[in-house]
Design a protein that fits this description.
Elements lengths: L3 E4 L9 H12 L5 H7 L6 H6 L5 H14 L6 H5 L8 H11 L3 E6 L14 H9 L2 E4 H4 L6 H11 L6 E5 L2 H10 L2 E4 L3 H12 L5
Parallel strand pairs: 1-2, 1-4, 2-3, 4-5
Length: 209
C-alpha cells in the first residue's frame, strides 16, 4: 500500500527540542514552555519563523527574539535558544530508519535554521548517518518555505515521485501534520519514539526494531 515514508527531523529522529527548551527554562528559572509560547505568537512573522526561512541572520534573530521575550516579561537571548537545537538522536528511531530506507522511498522535511542542518560542522555522527539514509531532504532554511506551508509537502512528493495516498508522514507537531493529511497522506504524530515505531510497524507490516 505504501511506497514512501517522510520524516520530520527534530522531535522525530532526535529528541524534541522542546525537552531541551524546558531544561534551559528550569536552569534559568523561567516558567516552563515560555519558548513555545513566544514562538507561537505571530507564528508566521516572528523571529523564529523568519530565521527558519533564512530571512534574517543569527545576529538579527538574537535581537528580535530578545525583544519578543521581553514582551513576555523574561530576559532570554536568542543565542540561548539556539544552543538547545542539537537534540540527541533516538537510537531505536535510527534503526527503524535504516530498515525503512532499505525497502521504501524516504524523505525528510525539516524546519531548521542555518546552524542545525546536515551541513552543520559539529553534527553528531548519527545525525550524519540519518541524513544519508533519506532519499531527499528539504530544509526550510535553504528553501525559504517552512511547514505548515502545503508547498513544502508537495515538493517532497514530486521529488520522490509518489502519490499522497501512498506516503506516510511523521511529525511531532499537529499543525505540521494537518496539511499532509489534507493532501491524502497517512500521518503519525510522534509523542515518543517507541510509539511512533509501533505505529509504523502496524502500517508497514515489517519489523522495525
Amino acid at each position: 500500500m505504501f511506497e514512501a515514508v517522510i520524516f520530520d527531523f527534530g522531535g522525530v529522529i532526535t529528541e524534541s527540542p522542546f525537552e531541551a527548551f524546558n531544561r534551559m527554562e528550569a536552569r534559568l528559572g523561567i516558567s516552563p514552555d515560555t519558548v513555545r509560547r513566544i514562538n507561537a505568537t505571530n507564528p508566521d512573522t516572528n523571529a523564529w519563523a523568519m530565521f527558519e526561512r533564512s530571512e534574517i541572520d543569527a545576529i538579527e534573530f538574537d535581537r528580535r527574539f530578545c525583544a519578543e521575550a521581553a514582551a513576555f516579561g523574561v530576559n532570554l537571548s536568542g543565542r540561548d535558544v539556539l544552543s538547545c537545537l542539537q537534540g540527541s538522536v533516538r537510537p531505536r528511531m535510527l534503526e527503524a530508519l535504516r530498515r525503512i530506507s532499505a525497502r521504501y522511498k524516504t524523505g525528510c522535511i525539516t524546519n531548521n535554521v542555518r546552524s542545525d542542518g546536515p551541513d552543520h560542522a559539529t553534527r553528531d555522527a548519527r545525525v550524519t548517518e540519518a541524513f544519508a539514509l533519506f532519499g531527499h531532504v528539504i530544509e526550510s532554511s535553504k528553501l525559504g518555505i517552512r511547514k505548515p506551508d502545503p508547498r513544502i509537502y508537495a515538493l517532497m512528493l514530486d521529488h520522490l515521485k509518489v502519490e499522497p495516498g501512498r506516503a506516510i508522514y511523521l511529525d511531532d507537531l499537529g499543525i505540521n501534520l494537518k496539511p499532509a493529511k489534507a493532501m491524502g497522506m497517512t500521518t503519525i504524530k510522534v509523542v515518543t519514539g517507541d510509539d511512533a515505531i509501533g505505529a509504523l510497524q502496524g502500517l508497514l507490516g515489517v519489523p522495525l526494531a
